[in-house]
Design brief:
The protein is mainly alpha-helical and 309 residues long. The protein has 13 helices and no strands. Helix content is 78%, strand content 0%. Helix 3 runs antiparallel to helix 10, helix 4 crosses helix 7 and helix 7 packs antiparallel against helix 10.
């Protein structure tokens, strides 16, 4: 059989099978829809619809009960005049930036160590992932005991820790950072480990033969090749830390006073127990827009850095 005959034969066979494949696909489509639609309906009912209702009430003076009236954009205007709201945004951004930097610096260092040829490597990988699966509130109360009881006794010679740091309106936020970073590193380490394992060992061998130092190998090989993983970790970390809630509730509950009150805690307090349902709903809408803009800006900047490498 010549090449031309073989091509014609193959084409003819494919043409004969095409209608059957199309028929099978047509028959299978309803089954796909039956699998997708329940998820779409559930998502719309428990996510999209509440979001729409919340946006609607943000233009009213609804207190969470009783009658309400439309007030237009008054809630949004008042947000920018509210010192408590501005303080909550300032605290949230300060906390998120510091925690993100610490989480990624510590996680990358640990991931590089866990990626090296060390004894019981799989065991240590499991140990470092444990904080991620623990309930943050439970661990938060453990950290609260440590900061309020153990550290004042162990570090009594250091003025900062002589008293309960959680009652210090200047430094209480650092205790929350310590708890959040301790748990946040667990997930970030896994992401960085995944990236490090994609780098061929031959690159490091060639760099060693050329006399490159460990720092030069990290700067020229490791960090550029895990750029995408770095982007994912930074974006997820900053987004998650901006929405910090559980560590604050467990350690300080927003205190002393409102020194460690985040935006999410303010929305929860005012919206559900402070009679500010509509006002804090408007705050939630603004906060959603802020997080979206920050995340998109991060992606734009960090992906451009990846392209430069």
């Amino acid at each position: 059989m010549t090449l031309t005959q073989a091509v014609r034969s193959t084409t003819g066979t494919a043409a004969k099978r095409a209608p059957r494949t199309k028929t099978r696909t047509a028959k299978a489509l309803p089954a796909y829809y039956w699998m997708v639609w329940p998820a779409v309906i559930a998502f719309a009912a428990f996510h999209t619809l509440p979001v729409i209702v919340g946006i609607f009430f943000s233009f009213t003076n609804y207190a969470g009960y009783g009658a309400w009236n439309f007030v237009g954009v008054s809630n949004y205007i008042n947000l920018f005049r509210d010192d408590r709201v501005l303080q909550a945004y300032g605290f949230s951004f300060l906390f998120a930036i510091v925690a993100t930097i610490l989480t990624n610096a510590i996680s990358l260092s640990i991931a590089m160590g866990l990626n090296a040829k060390i004894k019981a490597r799989n065991f240590w990988r499991g140990v470092y992932f444990v904080p991620y699966v623990l309930a943050i509130l439970v661990i938060g109360y453990v950290f609260q005991f440590i900061f309020s009881n153990s550290l004042p006794k162990i570090l009594a010679g250091i003025p900062l820790f002589r008293d309960n740091i959680l009652t210090n309106d200047t430094w209480a936020w650092t205790a929350i950072v310590a708890l959040a970073v301790w748990q946040g590193c667990a997930f970030a380490i896994i992401i960085y480990l995944s990236g490090l394992q994609t780098i061929p060992a031959e690159l490091y061998e060639a760099a060693s033969l050329d006399g490159a130092s460990a720092w030069r190998q990290f700067r020229s090989i490791t960090f550029p090749l895990i750029g995408a993983f770095f982007t994912i970790n930074v974006v997820l970390s900053l987004k998650g830390y901006l929405q910090v809630f559980d560590p604050i509730v467990a350690l300080t509950n927003g205190g002393p006073g409102t020194a460690t009150e985040s935006v999410t805690l303010l929305i929860f307090r005012g919206g559900f127990s402070g009679g500010e349902f509509a006002y804090q709903t408007a705050n939630a809408v603004v906060f959603f827009i802020v997080i979206t803009v920050v995340s998109l800006f991060q992606f734009r900047v960090l992906q451009r850095r990846e392209a430069d490498f």
